[in-house]
# Entry
Amino acid sequence: MLTGLPPFYSQNEEQMYEKILKADITYPSFLSLEVVDLIKKFLTRDPQHRLQELEQIKIHPWFKSMNWEKLENREITPSFVPAVKSPDDVRNIDKEFLQEKLVDEDEEEYGNTVVKPDAFGGFTFQAPAGGNFV
# Structure
């Protein structure tokens, strides 16, 4: 959100996954040292060492000026409030997203196949003890 692109972005999905697993991240020079440290801690690959505890996040130096109580009470005015004429005004949404195919939120797409969550409802097969069922 600070740079305009995700840290491991690639138009090629396979390359992006490979970057997530192995690539080093380069940080633009306009990012402060504090926010680079925060991002590095959020993106640590080992979940045991990743920054994820709310209290630890709140005391990170990048958030030193944040008034968490005011934020929780919704007393902070956002720096940007988009102008909208109605609840369904979409002029601030990129046209690319408006042209995407709608998918029922209870369905998932796998390639060209849409799989409904209950597609295997009533399926009762259980492997025999020992797992040898051939």
